[in-house]
Design goal:
This protein has helices spanning 8-21, 27-39, 44-54, 58-67, 87-91, 94-105, 150-157; strands spanning 79-84, 118-123, 135-137, 140-142. Strands 2-1-3-4 form a four-stranded mixed sheet, covered by helices on one side. Strand 3 (135-137) and strand 4 (140-142) form a beta hairpin. It is an alpha+beta fold. The longest helix is centred in the first third of the chain and has 14 residues, at 8-21. The chain has two domains: 8-67; 79-157, 3-Layer(aba) Sandwich (Glutaredoxin), CATH 3.40.30.10. It has seven helices and four strands; from the N terminus they run ααααβααβββα. The structure holds FE2/S2 (inorganic) cluster. FE2/S2 (inorganic) cluster is lined by residues 84, 86-89, 125-126, 128-129, 132, 134.
Length: 159
């Protein structure tokens, strides 16, 4: 895992955030949100600091981080590939698109490729059902997909 995001500078920013919220109700949630903004994710190294400095048990910090889907334990890739698994996409064979992406990137849903380029995730309906099945890659939307389109689409990002 790349560790550059766990640099002193980011921990110094985290200290300031903790000082800002310490002693205030709901501080843990606010600190976690800002910490994710700083580090991009909330690995154990970051959770331990939050636990110690906010005086909240590590188990509680970990419980909150893993309960809310907005929080991530690992860094995301440069590109997030999201496959819609909403009903319209699902009935139009979104699962085949999932399988094609898995095969192409050699990772499972929820994982990031070893080169740090792609994070692969599933999403609910993004409101583009007329284009089903749909994927997004960061802000870009790709619709009416066939399995055979996947290789070429991903290749554009893999330069
Ligand atoms: S179900 Fe996929 S965009 Fe609506």
């Amino acid at each position: 895992m790349p560790t550059s995001f766990l640099c002193e500078e980011n921990f110094a920013k985290l200290d300031k955030v903790i000082d800002k919220y310490k002693g205030i109700g709901g501080a843990l949630m606010m600190v976690l949100q800002e910490a994710q903004g700083i580090f991009g994710c909330l690995p154990m190294e970051v959770q331990k600091v939050i636990s110690q400095k906010l005086d909240v048990p590590l188990a509680e910090v970990y419980g909150v981080v893993t309960f809310y889907s907005q929080f991530r334990l690992l860094p995301t890739g440069k590109y997030t590939v999201s496959v819609c698994l909403g009903t319209a996409c699902y009935v139009r064979d979104a699962q085949k698109i999932v399988d094609a992406i898995k095969q192409e990137l050699n990772i499972e849903l929820g994982e990031t490729s070893k080169d740090g380029l792609f994070t692969f995730e599933a999403t609910r309906c993004i409101g583009a059902c007329g284009l089903a099945p749909v994927i997004t890659i960061n802000e870009e939307v790709y619709g009416r997909l066939k399995e055979s389109d996947i290789k070429e689409i991903l290749a554009k990002y893999n330069k």
